[in-house]
Design goal:
Transcription Regulator spoIIAA, alpha/beta, globular, six-stranded mixed beta sheet
Length: 144
Amino acid sequence: MENKLYIPQQKDTPEVQFDFETGDFSIKGISHPENIAIFFNPIMQWVDELKGQLERGVIPPPERMHLTFFFIYVNSASYKYLITVVDRFRSFMKLGVPLSITWCYEPDDFDMRDAGLELKEYLDLDAVVFETVERVRDKDMELS
């Protein structure tokens, strides 16, 4: 099993960069895939497999795990899957791995900011360092 997962950004799907060795995980871009399960299920399977390896002592735990989200747009179906993804990452905390989350949003995109705050509240992420950060999107997030 690879300790890294990379899914390039497409017109309707975000870029996914997960690196278990460094503990850095990011999802950024636009998320409204035509088939939501086809896009998100491999991500969740990858996370589950790594957790299983960690539980069995096959791989050492990272010092910490940090999730970064930066969406230009995320539809409601994607948002539901994000809840599941974050919940799966939160389960690593039971194995002693600290988790932090950064939810980025563009200036004046208060709906996206609120989506991050709602995620924190919904999942009761009080034990997680969670911050919302205003950020200008990079050119690589522009797809036509």
